[in-house]
Automatic annotation (TrEMBL):
Domain named 4Fe-4S ferredoxin-type: residues: 32-61, 72-101
Cofactor: [4Fe-4S] cluster
GO molecular-function terms, A-Z: 4 iron, 4 sulfur cluster binding; metal ion binding; oxidoreductase activity, acting on the aldehyde or oxo group of donors, iron-sulfur protein as acceptor
Protein name as it appears in the record: 4Fe-4S binding protein
Stretches that traverse the bilayer: none
Domain of life: Archaea
Gene3D superfamilies recorded: 3.30.70.20
Amino acid sequence: MTLPKATELPIGAVITQPGSTRRNLTAGWRTLKPVIHDDRCIRCQLCWLYCPEGTIAEIKGVFKVGNKTYDVKYEVIYDYCKGCGICANECPTKAIEMVPEP
């Protein structure tokens, strides 16, 4: 019996692409959820970049926050967020707070 090479294996849980869990609702096991505070966000994109599941959406438009206007904001897609907290850990201004899930 010969075993298949790694390149011949079907895509599985270990070799999936980032964001692939957005095919299934995965928020059921989350105990903490990230909340983005727009007034502290500097739009550095680190939360969006580091999210392993691709659950931070970059929304384009015109957004007024206090006396500043931005052309982008970030929102968490809670249906797919697992609450790992990587986004909050990487945020340089601590604009993301992990709060208990109700």
